[in-house]
Amino acid sequence: MNRSYYDDNFGHWDDMHDEDAIAYYNYVQEVSVEKECEGCHRTVKLQPHYGYCDACARMRESGIDF
User: Fold this and answer.
1) Is 59 helix (H, G, I), strand (E, B) or coil?
2) Residues 30, 33, 37, 38: what is their CA dihedral angle, to the nearest 10 degrees?
3) How far apart are alpha carbons 6 and 32 in whole angstroms?
């Protein structure tokens, strides 16, 4: 069974058949906190040291400025 995994830190998690990958996903969820994304200003669940959600981080990496 292929489940869909998504979070605001990394977006969609592919190939979630590996137990280690699922364990890491669960860890990321445990340590993430609700905060405002510095790009879109939505309230998202991110790791404390992240400032941008996955969507905004990808736009920044593509050269889009906020």
Assistant:
1) helix
2) -110
3) 13
Considering the entire predicted model, what is its pTM? 0.82
pLDDT in tens, 3-62: 778 999 999 988 788 889 889 999 999 999 999 999 999 999 999 999 999 999 999 999
Where exactly are the structural domains of the chain? Answer: 5-61
Whole-number Å distance between alpha carbons of 52 and 62: 14
List, as one string, the DSSP characters of 10-53.
Answer: TEEEP-TTSHHHHHHHHHHHHH-EEEE-TTT--EEEE-TT--S-
